[in-house]
Amino acid sequence: VGGWSSWSSWTECTATCDSGIQTRNRSCSNPSPLHGGPECRGPQIQTRECNTQPCKDLCPPNMIYQTAEECRGTGGACPRLCLDQAAQVECASTCYEGCYCPEGLFLQNNSCVPQTECSCYHKGALYQPGENVTLDACNNCTCVSGEMVCSAAPCPVDCGWSDWTSWSSCSRSCNVGTRRRYRSGTNPAAAFGGQDCEGSGVAIEFCSLQPCKGSAGDWGPWSECSVPCGGGYRNRSRVSVVLRRIEFSTCNLHPCSVINCSSIADTAYSGCGPACPRSCDDITEDQSLVTAPPGPVLSPGSIYLLGKV
Fold first, then answer.
1. 90 pairs with which residues across the strands?
2. Same domain, 40 and 86
3. Ranges for the VWFC domain (predicted)?
4. Which of 243, 267, 280, 300 has the most CB atoms around it within 10 Å of its CB?
5. For residue 237, what pLDDT is reported?
6. In the 8-state DSSP scheme, what is residue 71?
């Protein structure tokens, strides 16, 4: 926690008569706050009026004459100055017999002004009414009626990744497995409209690439070919956890033989047989456009269906 230094001496009065102003200050340096500790509490500046006697027999046009008792009857001598409006300023004036600003007006630069025209004291500097000053990256302060009014919106906080965790154990002890590691978007977490973390919170890589011993059995025998001629396929299989468990190959690639007419009863081979239809599929054809190809000649009225008459 910070501590205040001693008060400085009062400054020279700003006027020799008709009420001037004196100030003194102290600093939060005994000791200074460290490691984010709180600042000092209380006022940093004190003010008081000085040389309050009239310069002439009468008070200035914008001031009024009051006795000390009249001053105390109207609430005391504070606040009398524009500077007294600031949060870190303390009025140290006492009631006296002399010239005062009328109620609702405050002394500034040896003149009485309404509060809306008062300057503002902020961090060691004076600012005019309506003047802005940067407070931090997200907030500004504005001089309003002798006091700096500051916004207090929290600044956006962008997400930050934590460190990666250690890799997990591999999912397999041989052949190909995977392992994982993780991180979280909590360093810091996104807040007040800040950006989310980019990227993934999970990383995956392959592991245990050495082959397993005895993990697959021997291939079984080939299956029967799917067709007797014209090209078919066959397969064989084996017992395995991760390796290929079935494979295929072609078989019986030789062409199928031509039909022997002598093997079909009531037929004879002809280079140009009678007109269609000669099979059930030909019944829907336009008879005038179809000429039968060479092949078995059927008896009148017979239909050839799947090798049978």
1. 46
2. yes
3. 118-208
4. 267
5. 84
6. H
In a domain, 306, yes or no: no
Backbone dihedral angles phi then psi of residue 25, each to the nearest 5 degrees: -140, 170
pTM for this predicted structure: 0.45
For residue 233, the domain's CATH number is 2.20.100.10
Structural domain span for residue 48: 20-118
CB neighbours of residue 58 within 10 Å: 10
pLDDT band for 253, please (50, 70, 90 cuts). Answer: confident
Length, in residues, of the chain: 309
With respect to residue 42, please indicate whether it lies within any of the assigned structural domains: yes
Is position 15 within any domain? Answer: no
CA distance 30 to 51: 33
CATH number at residue 114: 2.10.25.10
For residue range 103-118, what is the model confidence (pLDDT) as tens digits?
889 888 878 899 999 9
Name residue, tokens 């973390």. 197
Same domain, 105 and 48: yes
Within-domain flag for 238: yes
- Backbone phi, psi, residue 197, to 5°: -70, 140
C-alpha to C-alpha distance for 90 and 85, rounded to whole angstroms: 9
Task: Give 34-76 pLDDT, tens digit per residue.
Answer: 877 778 888 888 888 888 877 777 788 888 888 888 888 888 8
